[in-house]
Amino acid sequence: MTKDTFQQIIFFIITSALIFMTGKQLIIINDITTFAELGIIMVFFVSLVLFLNYFLRLSSKLIGTFRF
């Protein structure tokens, strides 16, 4: 496994944990009243984009290993 793949796996795990934790906070929030709540929303969407990026990269590498 290369260093690049190992980094992608680590970042994939970190972003999935961030999505999980901030997603739980988003469920609790009713209205955006403070900057902290706005920050939670921003962290959620930024980590979602990064999560999708790492997921697609890792899945393309996995599919690439099964090619003949």
Describe the structure in your own words.
The chain crosses the membrane at residues 9-29, 35-56. This protein has 68 residues and is an all-alpha fold. It has one domain (3-65). Helix content is 84%, strand content 0%. The two termini are 19 Å apart.
Give a quick summary of the entry.
This protein is an all-alpha fold and 68 residues long. The protein has one domain.
Give me some keywords for this one.
mainly alpha
Supply Rg.
15 Å
Q: Globular, elongated, flat, extended or rod-shaped: what is the shape?
A: elongated
Number of helices: 2
Report mean pLDDT, rounded to a whole number.
91
Number of domains: 1
Q: How would you sum up the major sheet? A: none
- Proportion of β residues? under 5%
- The end-to-end span amounts to 19 Å
Summarize the amount of helix as a percent range.
over 70%
Taken in chain order, the helices and strands follow as: HH
Show unreliable segments: none
What is the structural class? mainly alpha
Count all strands and give the number: 0
